[in-house]
Design goal:
mainly alpha, single chain, 13 helices
Protein backbone atom coordinates (compact mmCIF):
# COMPACT_ATOMS: atom_id res chain seq x y z
CA UNK A 1 0.00 0.00 0.00
CA UNK A 2 1.39 3.40 -0.95
CA UNK A 3 1.99 6.14 1.62
CA UNK A 4 -0.87 8.23 0.18
CA UNK A 5 -3.39 5.40 0.55
CA UNK A 6 -2.18 4.78 4.09
CA UNK A 7 -2.68 8.46 4.94
CA UNK A 8 -6.21 8.41 3.47
CA UNK A 9 -7.09 5.25 5.41
CA UNK A 10 -5.75 6.66 8.68
CA UNK A 11 -7.57 9.97 8.07
CA UNK A 12 -10.82 8.06 7.53
CA UNK A 13 -10.25 6.10 10.73
CA UNK A 14 -9.65 9.30 12.67
CA UNK A 15 -12.78 10.99 11.37
CA UNK A 16 -15.01 7.94 11.76
CA UNK A 17 -13.90 7.07 15.29
CA UNK A 18 -13.01 10.40 16.96
CA UNK A 19 -16.48 11.02 18.38
CA UNK A 20 -17.42 7.37 18.85
CA UNK A 21 -16.56 5.76 22.22
CA UNK A 22 -14.06 3.43 20.54
CA UNK A 23 -10.77 5.42 20.73
CA UNK A 24 -9.72 7.09 17.49
CA UNK A 25 -6.10 7.30 18.64
CA UNK A 26 -6.08 3.59 19.46
CA UNK A 27 -7.49 2.71 16.03
CA UNK A 28 -5.09 5.00 14.15
CA UNK A 29 -2.02 3.83 16.10
CA UNK A 30 -2.98 0.18 15.73
CA UNK A 31 -3.67 0.51 12.00
CA UNK A 32 -0.42 2.44 11.56
CA UNK A 33 1.48 -0.32 13.34
CA UNK A 34 0.16 -3.08 11.07
CA UNK A 35 0.54 -0.94 7.93
CA UNK A 36 4.11 -0.04 8.86
CA UNK A 37 3.21 3.66 8.78
CA UNK A 38 5.99 5.70 10.35
CA UNK A 39 5.16 9.07 11.87
CA UNK A 40 8.10 10.78 13.65
CA UNK A 41 7.07 11.41 17.24
CA UNK A 42 3.54 10.16 16.40
CA UNK A 43 2.81 13.75 15.34
CA UNK A 44 0.64 12.81 12.36
CA UNK A 45 -1.80 10.95 14.63
CA UNK A 46 -2.31 14.06 16.78
CA UNK A 47 -2.30 16.78 14.13
CA UNK A 48 -4.94 15.21 11.87
CA UNK A 49 -7.39 15.70 14.75
CA UNK A 50 -7.72 19.26 13.44
CA UNK A 51 -10.09 17.85 10.83
CA UNK A 52 -12.38 16.48 13.53
CA UNK A 53 -12.28 19.83 15.38
CA UNK A 54 -13.38 21.67 12.24
CA UNK A 55 -16.14 19.09 11.71
CA UNK A 56 -17.61 19.95 15.12
CA UNK A 57 -17.31 23.67 14.42
CA UNK A 58 -19.12 23.32 11.08
CA UNK A 59 -21.97 21.15 12.37
CA UNK A 60 -22.46 23.14 15.58
CA UNK A 61 -21.76 26.59 14.15
CA UNK A 62 -25.28 27.87 14.79
CA UNK A 63 -25.31 26.73 18.41
CA UNK A 64 -21.77 28.01 19.02
CA UNK A 65 -22.69 31.39 17.55
CA UNK A 66 -25.74 31.58 19.83
CA UNK A 67 -23.54 30.78 22.84
CA UNK A 68 -21.06 33.49 21.87
CA UNK A 69 -23.75 36.13 21.34
CA UNK A 70 -25.66 35.32 24.55
CA UNK A 71 -22.56 34.90 26.73
CA UNK A 72 -22.49 38.48 28.15
CA UNK A 73 -26.17 38.53 29.15
CA UNK A 74 -27.21 34.93 29.83
CA UNK A 75 -26.22 33.30 33.12
CA UNK A 76 -27.07 29.81 31.87
CA UNK A 77 -24.73 30.26 28.92
CA UNK A 78 -21.94 31.53 31.18
CA UNK A 79 -22.33 28.48 33.41
CA UNK A 80 -22.11 26.20 30.37
CA UNK A 81 -18.91 27.87 29.10
CA UNK A 82 -17.42 27.70 32.61
CA UNK A 83 -18.32 24.00 32.76
CA UNK A 84 -16.54 23.29 29.46
CA UNK A 85 -13.44 25.16 30.63
CA UNK A 86 -13.39 23.32 33.97
CA UNK A 87 -13.84 19.97 32.19
CA UNK A 88 -10.93 20.82 29.87
CA UNK A 89 -8.57 21.89 32.68
CA UNK A 90 -7.47 18.43 33.97
CA UNK A 91 -6.54 17.22 30.48
CA UNK A 92 -4.61 20.42 29.79
CA UNK A 93 -2.52 20.03 32.95
CA UNK A 94 -1.94 16.28 32.79
CA UNK A 95 -1.46 16.28 29.01
CA UNK A 96 1.24 18.96 29.15
CA UNK A 97 3.00 17.37 32.13
CA UNK A 98 2.96 13.85 30.71
CA UNK A 99 3.34 14.67 27.00
CA UNK A 100 6.68 12.95 26.54
CA UNK A 101 5.71 9.80 28.45
CA UNK A 102 2.38 9.53 26.61
CA UNK A 103 3.93 9.92 23.15
CA UNK A 104 7.09 7.82 23.61
CA UNK A 105 5.83 5.04 25.91
CA UNK A 106 2.04 4.67 25.81
CA UNK A 107 1.63 5.45 22.09
CA UNK A 108 4.32 2.90 21.26
CA UNK A 109 2.55 -0.11 22.78
CA UNK A 110 0.10 -1.86 20.40
CA UNK A 111 -0.43 -4.58 23.01
CA UNK A 112 -1.62 -1.99 25.55
CA UNK A 113 -4.00 -0.51 22.97
CA UNK A 114 -5.60 -3.90 22.24
CA UNK A 115 -6.05 -4.65 25.95
CA UNK A 116 -7.62 -1.26 26.70
CA UNK A 117 -9.91 -1.59 23.69
CA UNK A 118 -11.23 -4.89 25.03
CA UNK A 119 -11.59 -3.67 28.63
CA UNK A 120 -13.31 -0.49 27.45
CA UNK A 121 -15.71 -2.55 25.34
CA UNK A 122 -16.70 -4.68 28.32
CA UNK A 123 -17.28 -1.53 30.40
CA UNK A 124 -19.46 0.00 27.66
CA UNK A 125 -21.61 -3.14 27.46
CA UNK A 126 -22.00 -3.12 31.24
CA UNK A 127 -22.89 0.58 31.43
CA UNK A 128 -25.33 0.28 28.53
CA UNK A 129 -27.34 -2.31 30.48
CA UNK A 130 -27.52 -0.36 33.73
CA UNK A 131 -30.87 1.09 34.71
CA UNK A 132 -29.57 4.60 35.30
CA UNK A 133 -32.08 7.33 36.12
CA UNK A 134 -30.72 10.50 34.49
CA UNK A 135 -31.31 13.91 36.06
CA UNK A 136 -29.80 15.96 33.23
CA UNK A 137 -31.17 16.01 29.69
CA UNK A 138 -29.57 19.23 28.40
CA UNK A 139 -25.85 20.02 28.34
CA UNK A 140 -26.64 23.62 29.23
CA UNK A 141 -27.75 22.42 32.68
CA UNK A 142 -24.58 20.53 33.62
CA UNK A 143 -23.11 22.00 36.80
CA UNK A 144 -19.46 23.12 37.04
CA UNK A 145 -18.80 20.43 39.67
CA UNK A 146 -20.24 17.77 37.40
CA UNK A 147 -18.20 19.09 34.46
CA UNK A 148 -14.97 18.93 36.45
CA UNK A 149 -15.72 15.30 37.28
CA UNK A 150 -16.28 14.55 33.58
CA UNK A 151 -12.98 16.26 32.80
CA UNK A 152 -11.16 14.03 35.28
CA UNK A 153 -12.74 10.97 33.67
CA UNK A 154 -11.60 12.21 30.25
CA UNK A 155 -7.98 12.10 31.46
CA UNK A 156 -8.14 8.30 31.39
CA UNK A 157 -7.97 8.68 27.61
CA UNK A 158 -4.32 9.69 27.92
CA UNK A 159 -3.92 5.91 27.69
CA UNK A 160 -4.44 5.04 24.00
CA UNK A 161 -7.36 2.71 23.48
CA UNK A 162 -9.39 4.09 26.40
CA UNK A 163 -11.29 6.67 24.26
CA UNK A 164 -11.69 10.34 25.08
CA UNK A 165 -15.34 10.37 24.14
CA UNK A 166 -16.02 7.03 25.84
CA UNK A 167 -14.51 8.03 29.18
CA UNK A 168 -16.26 11.42 29.21
CA UNK A 169 -19.62 9.91 28.14
CA UNK A 170 -19.52 7.16 30.78
CA UNK A 171 -18.41 9.68 33.41
CA UNK A 172 -21.29 12.01 32.51
CA UNK A 173 -23.83 9.18 32.65
CA UNK A 174 -22.69 8.13 36.12
CA UNK A 175 -23.08 11.76 37.19
CA UNK A 176 -26.68 11.91 36.07
CA UNK A 177 -26.66 12.75 32.34
CA UNK A 178 -28.76 10.86 29.82
CA UNK A 179 -27.04 9.20 26.86
CA UNK A 180 -27.74 11.98 24.35
CA UNK A 181 -26.62 14.90 26.54
CA UNK A 182 -23.55 12.93 27.70
CA UNK A 183 -22.51 12.40 24.07
CA UNK A 184 -23.24 16.03 23.18
CA UNK A 185 -21.18 17.35 26.11
CA UNK A 186 -18.36 15.13 24.88
CA UNK A 187 -18.62 16.89 21.49
CA UNK A 188 -18.27 20.32 23.05
CA UNK A 189 -15.47 19.21 25.36
CA UNK A 190 -13.62 17.79 22.35
CA UNK A 191 -13.10 21.27 20.89
CA UNK A 192 -10.76 22.77 23.53
CA UNK A 193 -9.24 19.38 24.37
CA UNK A 194 -8.28 18.47 20.81
CA UNK A 195 -7.35 22.04 19.89
CA UNK A 196 -5.05 22.14 22.91
CA UNK A 197 -3.44 18.80 22.00
CA UNK A 198 -3.01 19.98 18.40
CA UNK A 199 -1.43 23.30 19.40
CA UNK A 200 0.89 21.77 21.99
CA UNK A 201 2.08 18.99 19.70
CA UNK A 202 2.63 21.45 16.85
CA UNK A 203 4.65 23.66 19.23
CA UNK A 204 6.77 20.71 20.39
CA UNK A 205 7.30 18.98 17.02
CA UNK A 206 6.31 21.41 14.28
CA UNK A 207 9.87 22.47 13.49
CA UNK A 208 10.94 18.88 12.84
CA UNK A 209 8.20 18.14 10.29
CA UNK A 210 9.44 17.59 6.75
CA UNK A 211 7.57 18.87 3.70
CA UNK A 212 6.32 15.34 3.03
CA UNK A 213 5.08 14.97 6.62
CA UNK A 214 3.21 18.29 6.35
CA UNK A 215 1.53 17.11 3.13
CA UNK A 216 0.51 13.88 4.87
CA UNK A 217 -1.01 15.83 7.77
CA UNK A 218 -2.96 18.11 5.40
CA UNK A 219 -4.37 15.16 3.43
CA UNK A 220 -5.16 13.23 6.60
CA UNK A 221 -6.93 16.21 8.16
CA UNK A 222 -9.09 16.79 5.04
CA UNK A 223 -10.21 13.15 4.98
CA UNK A 224 -10.79 13.21 8.77
CA UNK A 225 -12.93 16.35 8.42
CA UNK A 226 -15.22 14.83 5.77
CA UNK A 227 -15.78 11.57 7.64
CA UNK A 228 -16.16 13.27 11.05
CA UNK A 229 -18.93 15.55 9.73
CA UNK A 230 -20.95 12.47 8.79
CA UNK A 231 -20.47 10.88 12.22
CA UNK A 232 -21.33 14.04 14.17
CA UNK A 233 -24.54 14.59 12.20
CA UNK A 234 -25.97 11.15 12.99
CA UNK A 235 -24.34 9.92 16.21
CA UNK A 236 -26.62 11.61 18.77
CA UNK A 237 -29.79 10.20 17.23
CA UNK A 238 -28.25 6.74 17.02
CA UNK A 239 -27.09 6.80 20.64
CA UNK A 240 -30.49 8.03 21.84
CA UNK A 241 -32.24 5.13 20.13
CA UNK A 242 -29.76 2.27 20.39
CA UNK A 243 -27.25 3.06 23.17
CA UNK A 244 -23.60 1.97 23.14
CA UNK A 245 -23.74 -1.82 22.75
CA UNK A 246 -22.58 -1.73 19.11
CA UNK A 247 -19.50 0.26 20.07
CA UNK A 248 -18.75 -2.07 22.99
CA UNK A 249 -18.73 -5.11 20.70
CA UNK A 250 -16.76 -3.16 18.08
CA UNK A 251 -14.02 -2.46 20.63
CA UNK A 252 -13.88 -6.08 21.79
CA UNK A 253 -13.67 -7.43 18.22
CA UNK A 254 -11.00 -4.94 17.07
CA UNK A 255 -8.98 -5.39 20.26
CA UNK A 256 -9.27 -9.18 20.07
CA UNK A 257 -8.24 -9.32 16.41
CA UNK A 258 -5.33 -6.97 17.07
CA UNK A 259 -4.20 -8.97 20.08
CA UNK A 260 -4.35 -12.19 18.10
CA UNK A 261 -2.35 -10.69 15.22
CA UNK A 262 0.30 -9.37 17.60
CA UNK A 263 0.69 -12.77 19.28
CA UNK A 264 0.95 -14.55 15.90
CA UNK A 265 3.57 -12.06 14.66
CA UNK A 266 5.82 -12.55 17.70
Amino acid sequence: MTQTLEVILLGMLEGLTEFLPVSSTGHVLLAGHFLGFNSPGKTFEVLIQLGAILAILSVYFGKLWHILVSLPSNGRTRQFVLSILLAFLPAAIIGAAGHSFIKTILFASPMLICITLIIGGIILLYVDRLDLRPSYHDVMDFTPKMALGIGLCQCLAMIPGVSRSGSSIVGAMFMGADKRSAAEFSFFLAMPTMAGAFAYDLYKNGASLSAGAVNDVILGFIVAFITAVIVVRYLLDYVSRHGFALFGWWRIIVGGLGLGALLVMR
